[in-house]
Amino acid sequence: MQTASRIGFSAVGAVALLVSMTVGAEAQQPGDGRVRVDTLADGRIVVSNPDSPQTGPRGVSTFVEELRIGSLDGTCDAFGDVASLAVDGDGRIYVADRQARAIRVFAPQGECVRTFGRSGEGPGEFRWLEGIAWQPPGYLWAIDAIQSRLTVFDSLGTVLATHPVNLGPGASMPWPLWVDAGGSLHIWLQGFRSLVKYGSGPGLDSLDSFRVPEIPRELYTQTNVGNTGISARSTIPYSPAIRWTVSPAGNLWLANSSTYAIHETTYAGDTLRTVQLDRRVPRLEGRERDSIAAAIGIAARRLPARKSVVERIRSSPDGWLWIETDKGAIRAWDVFDERGYYMGRVASPVPIEKEPFPVFGRGTVTAVTRDELGVQYVVRLRLGW
To answer: Fewest Cβ atoms closer than 10 Å to its Cβ: which of 18, 53, 56, 308?
Structure first.
């Protein structure tokens, strides 16, 4: 594997995300006059939305559940610990089960088609299966976090290629993988705090890399792990953090978690567009502030003044943005169309797990939910009215 050395996002970029942006001249008003679109002197487009949706005559859309896969006593659809999901161009659903160290394949209607992969260290075997992604026209990528290895399968489960990869000293659970509309594979290397872009096909030649800014050390707190003498580092609750995802165009969407502004940025570090929502950030104060500080053993003054507003960013193939704002299970997404116009808050009929990451299609989302007993099910939701 060859890794590109150019880093496209420096500490300067981190500062830019942590401060508010001043919108410049050349304002353009859409027909309804509610969304403001500005072009800055450097060519950046800024889309400023009021905190009210651009609804049509049918109102804001909602999700309906159209498919549920899972059981308590089945052989193929009884999931142990779903680590990752993928969906191919024909609608087949691939489920990576961390506990079984196997990948289950389901037809678009939910029937179990096949299972491949098993525990082991040989080709097509896994020690710690942590992520999968579908790459057109016919490649399924799978990452083994312990063996530091990527395996490429076809849709039948045949091993096409195996690639050792330096994942760095950190580990992700699950492991983020993206494929853009051009077929390029993007991998998050947590230990290096970098996203790496690779070409299409079963080879693994890197094209570019992008370093995501570090969280300042003063925003971390240390906690001891039992009586082991080992300390674990975690962020102070509600501290600003950089959220990101890969767009269908192969660019990056980045945001400061404490500011509702999402920036479309190239791997070279150029910001092309900013989408903003005029939403008030709730304050962290009173008994809630004191309770959080006491729970983690720090002075209340070390906590930030305000809470987070952006938890995760997702992007669908049609260029829409899906923003998670809940800290727990996902109940709804804030949705922006391909222009960056706020379309409203789209609710889910069931609570959706943040991990494994939901997979968005055109008007669909495939994700994992749990019942009242904690049993995992894979569901497909479709936009309805």
So the answer is: 56
Please state the three-class secondary structure of the chain as a single string: CECCCCECCCHHHHHHHHCCCCCCCCEECCCCCCCEEEECCCCCEEEEEECCCCCECCECCEEEEEEEECCCCCCCCCCCCEEEEEECCCCCEEEEECCCCEEEEECCCCCEEEEECEECCCCCEECCEEEEEEECCCEEEEEECCCCEEEEECCCCCEEEEEECCCCCCCCCCCCEEECCCCCEEEEEHHHCEEEEECCCCCCEEEEEEECCCCCHHHEEEEECCCCCCEEEEECCCCCCEEEEECCCCCEEEEECCCCEEEEECCCCCEEEEEEEECCCCECCHHHHHHHHHHHCCCHHHCCCECCCCCEEEECCCCCEEEECCCCCEEEEEEECCCCCEEEEEEEEEEECCCCCCEECCCEEEEEEECCCCCEEEEEEEEEC
Tokens coding 260: 């509702």
**CB atoms < 10 A from the CB of 34, how many?**
15
Measured CA to CA in angstroms, residue 329 lies from 61, 111, 240 at distances of 20, 27, 20
Condensed to tens digits (0 to 9), the pLDDT of residues 98-119 reads: 999 999 999 999 999 999 999 9
Tokens 């309770």 sit at which residue? 291
Half-sphere exposure of 110 (CA within 13 A, CB side): 15
Q: Which residues of 243-265 are buried (b: 16+ CB within 10 A; e: fewer)?
A: bbbbbbebbbbbbbbbbbbbbbb
Nearest partner of 381 among 169, 162, 358, judged by Cα: 358
Give the distance, in angstroms, between the CA of residue 86 and the centroid of all CA atoms in the same chain.
Answer: 13
Q: Which residues contact 15 (CB under 8 A, 6 or more apart)?
A: none
Residue type, 194: S
User: Of 19, 9, 39, which is closest to residue 261 (Cα–Cα)?
Assistant: 19
Rounded CA separation 126/122 (Å): 8
In the block, residue with structure tokens 């525990």: 119
Q: How far apart are CA 352 and CA 363, in angstroms?
A: 16
Residue 27's pLDDT band (cuts 50, 70, 90)? very low
297-332 pLDDT per residue, tens: 889 998 989 899 999 999 999 999 999 998 889 999
